[in-house]
Description:
The chain is of the alpha/beta class. It folds into two domains: 12-43, no CATH class; 59-234 and 284-478, Alkaline Phosphatase, subunit A (3-Layer(aba) Sandwich), CATH 3.40.720.10. The protein has 14 helices and 17 strands. It has helices at 13-19, 21-33, 35-43, 79-83, 91-94, 133-136, 155-164, 174-182, 242-263, 266-289, 296-302, 312-324, 343-367, 438-448; strands at residues 59-65, 118-121, 126-129, 142-149, 192-196, 222-224, 329-334, 374-379, 383-388, 399-402, 406-412, 419-421, 423-424, 431-433, 436-437, 458-460, 463-465. The protein is globular and about 75 Å long.
Amino acid sequence: MCHCGNYEKQFTRRDFLTKTSMGLGAFSVASMLDPSMMARSLMENTPGLGPHFSPKAKRVIYLFQSGGPSQLDLFDYKPMLQKMNGEELPPSIRGEQRLTGMSAGQGLFPIAGSHFDFAQYGESGQWVSNLMPHTAKIVDELCFIKSMHTDAINHDPAATFIQTGSQLPGRPSLGAWLSYGLGSDNENLPSYVVLVTKNKYGQPLYSRLWGNGFLPSQYQGVQFRAGKHPVLYLHNPPGVSDSDRRVQLDYLQKLENINFETENDPEIEARISQYEMAYRMQSSVPEVMSVENEPDYIYDMYGEDAKTPGTYAANALLARRLIERGVKSVQLYHQGWDQHGNLPNAIRTQCKETDQPTAALITDLKQRGLLEDTLVVWGGEFGRTSYTQGKLTPENYGRDHHPRCFTIFMAGAGVKKGFSIGQTDDLGYNIVKNPVHVHDFQATLLHLMGIDHEKMTYKFQGRRYRLTDQFGKVVNEILA
């Protein structure tokens, strides 16, 4: 009788030949010509391979600003925008570049000067607008990349691209790759934790942004939520004690082991691993989420919002608590940066919510001695245009999506302090110096974590995949 779910019987004849005589022959030849080749083949698709070289960073906190923050109103100071405010964007600047459907039909493309004042801060003299007063105080800890560019012009593919290395869904996320390649430092907490600002609206966030893709499911990000039950389905149902759950899991593991012997499906082992992790998290998660014992000066640093679970400030504080306990990768998602209109008012709200907590997190990590081996990343999926979308008035303007250039910053382990790389033209529309592609950024982040982005691959459906896909280079200029 045919068992349609039988994993082994789903192999094709080609798979069978590869895994038997032809595969053995290939290993024999490989072992004679290059013994290390066989070792590499055996290690492929094996989790927790460890770093390829000594890492600068042991962990990463990625503060993802969903929607595309306007670099022209935050960090990329362009006085020419003020001088040419209201004038038509020269066709030579825009060229034949693609526009979104939201502004492609505009008859005019008037330049919009920023409503916000810029000044230079710190010994490094970094330009920051008055929207970010707390960030301005720590610029000498920051490494700005002002020449980021991406292939995608709309939110979903752009966010998917920078988080997974592909515009199309289905690939593993950055945190999943790190969890797969580096393993975990705390068996009682996930290696990869996701925090999303609650009650914050904007472009939708899909769980695939922190998903495992084709990697085994234990490497997906685990979302911690605000409220009584931070992790869904973690608590025992009424009438079930911890000892009852332990007995249940022991029997379940025996059944799954029998199932694995029959099916030989690695996802069965992944499922067992997740069951056990959930059991251990029943005690570890409440402890890490208990922030009431944090001293008053911490709340003064992060701001009053830090006392409200689920806010950006509370999640920033929680990120610090998580990495203190050995979590390898923490990702914060904050929506609301998609300001096609009413930008001056909307961006004030965004900065008020995020500026102080971001600066506090970096300062907090530094004073605890954690910043020297923790990497912090701040940025969105693309930038905004130097022309206004819709009508330009003395009080208001909006900016459309702009993939050609945007700004992110990094801080901490392995990156230069008080440093800026990349330059855009006088109107902030095109990169004129040191372009950094999304794949370059991803390659650099992996490098800081001790991973060679070309060597960490996973074979799926006959092809070897990696986060950076077919290209990408480490941005050595920013390395400390």
